[in-house]
Structure prediction request, 202 residues.
Amino acid sequence: MKPWVLGLTGGIGSGKSAVVDAFGRLGVHWVDADHAARWVVEPGRPALGLIVDRFGEAVLASDGSLDRAALRERVFREPEQRKWLEQLLHPLIRQETAEHLARATSPYAIMVSPLLVESGQHHQVARVLVVDVPEALQLERAIRRDQSSEAQIRAILNAQASREERLRHADDVLVNERDRAWLESEVKRLHEFYLTLRGGQE
Prediction:
């Protein structure tokens, strides 16, 4: 039987990676759409050439790989460019992600995506788990982790779906504001519940 797919999402700094690592330790196969987003623009892949044709060599690092920060600088300022980039990359990321999920041998597999709701990827999954944290904690974690300014993090927060929007699509919510041990036990509880589901629904 093909594994059903759980979509895992949450805003920046919510702790998605800690959650998915815990699922991984329980033997659940997962793929991160953010990783797939890097794979599709690796040197030698067609998408990178198209990006350079449009934005010029300035978006390349000295080793010929994509300079993500330089590209982000350009597209954040111009909604038109961001739209073009998303139309190019989203289908490729979707395909890459699907290929990885197809290799899963666990009863269910997880697709991690910060933009699960915004990109419409939630239509591709059987169930949605939202990792949620209060915004103040989100900001504090993200600033600490990315060494970014509060303004930069707020810009990313504003580009992501609002908490309300994300929670509206959630089948399950994990509020990640306590310690790691508590998080592990919550993941285990969800995992045991997920193992009882057929096709991701009760």
In short: The chain has a mean pLDDT of 89.
